[in-house]
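Before relying on records like the one below, remember that each one covers exactly one chain. Contacts with other chains, cofactors or solvent are not represented anywhere in the record.
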Amino acid sequence: RQRHSAPLLHARRGVKKLGWQCRESTTAEISDRSPAAFTGQRLPLEAVVADGTHQYAGRVVAKVLDGVFVDLGAERQGFLPCSAETAPKRGSRITVYPVRKWTTAGAGGIDLALEPEGHPRISWEHVNVDGVTPYKGRVASVDALGALVDIGCDVMGFLYFKEALESNPCSLVAGAELTVYLISRDRKLHHLRLSLQPRSCPLTELRDFVSDGQTPYVGKIKKMLTTGALVDLNGEGNGFMPAPYPLSATPKEGEEVTVYVHQKLKDSGRLCVSLEPASKPRKSLEQILSDGVTPHTGQVTIKCEFGVFVDIHAEVPGLLPKHMWWDKAGEMQLNNLKEGQSVTVYVVSKNLDSGKVTLGLNPWQKPLTSIEAIRADGITPHKGIVTSDRDVGLFVHFGADMVGILRRAKGERVLYEHTNAEFEALDLAPGREVEVYVMRKNPVSGKVDLSLHPSVQPHLSLDDVRMRCGEGGSLDGLVYHVAHNEVLIDFGCEVTGILPRRDLFGAKRGQRIVVEPVEFDERCGRFLLRLASTGSAVIGEEDVVRWRVDVQRDPTAPKRMIDKRTGAVVLEAPKTGWVEVALA
């Protein structure tokens, strides 16, 4: 991206990731004004909705030749292109709409506009990379290799001159309108590659490739590298054939070959192929038994700084992490492993969303509970151990076949999010034991949200809400995430719901609404919702029952007050607001 978009970046190349109080800046001018611009906890870049319709309040913090930088309260600054004559003054507060976001070479930013677009932009994950679906685009800039084209997505597509000149001898110019087709998607770098001509047949999406090691695919060797060969499989990405190759069939560039997909990596979109079929079918991610006590025989493939990768004859590799907080004895054995060595491992967790599998060298104390069998009622305590500390929060292994997350609050705390102060007060860090409560889960992706505090009341089960679908019954909900074209709602069930953004224009995190469940979507693992048909669907802040107090039967016993929004016990009683009173 840095190589392909020089005319768009200019000074933006140097904008680093902002810290707690913007302590990292690239110039003395930006550093001087940063603390005054924003002093709260910043939104991560992935939390910024760059669909062209979501409104953010910002403050102009610096001016450059082709625009101004705007502080949105995010970890990256936004850039608003404008001329010197029309540029807002430094320090002025403005309303902006993110239309695009990007990262490259450790830097990144957000492209802004002053006016909302007519309809939300598409997320790069949801565009059709089939080579035959047309998209209307406008050339944003041109460099020596090709053109960046705006196709109404939250990232730009790149059109190489080679692709353009084959079908259109006219040179590309900024502002020109084109009809383009998506022919490649890099899931790791968030890159989209375009063409002016459609493919003769639709490209195969990543999810449609069968990675059992025995299904044949016809491809063409696209490029020979020192580490392997790139193979064009007529898919959204290329296959990679690692060296060395069989002695009987050394591939050559441009040669047509029959290959077999041995691994399919969800997070990067990479396909690992071979000229030889597997001796027996490789297991899919869903078929991998992750009870922590069943042995798997694998082969060490790669040793790196964060652990050891093991091929367990499945469509994804497993990782023996460098720090195994649950298995100190196994951690000490990692250094003795060698590449190519056969090893017995145990699957202690797997992530159906990212496709990552975590291994151990010793079995778990007892069989791990399947995530399907765990009830996310919000009141049952689970003993767990913190396995890693990430920007989004703390990951906790709590005796299930998938890890859960204690989410870190980004900006205003909503529902089951926690502040850094809470984590520090409990001295939570990788390797520490902690008691958690399962608040919600996604039965399709396997994602589990945890909390340090129990819920005020038990959550409804998936089956309870299924029976209510279509009956017109309403439930109180709270917006906890706003994404492209959809709003995620927590309505007191172990499974959350989705509401189209067009039905709740201007939705914000923490907003309370009344919803009705329509049906359960088996594809995404959430309920489809609609706004309540009777009364006001949006609950005003003055009508929200914010607190709950448990009155003890013993008059001398202290009362316990709970914040219903977060589930945390309130030490100092509030002075105003509605409270729900219950006899403990």
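The first helix runs from residue 6 to 9.
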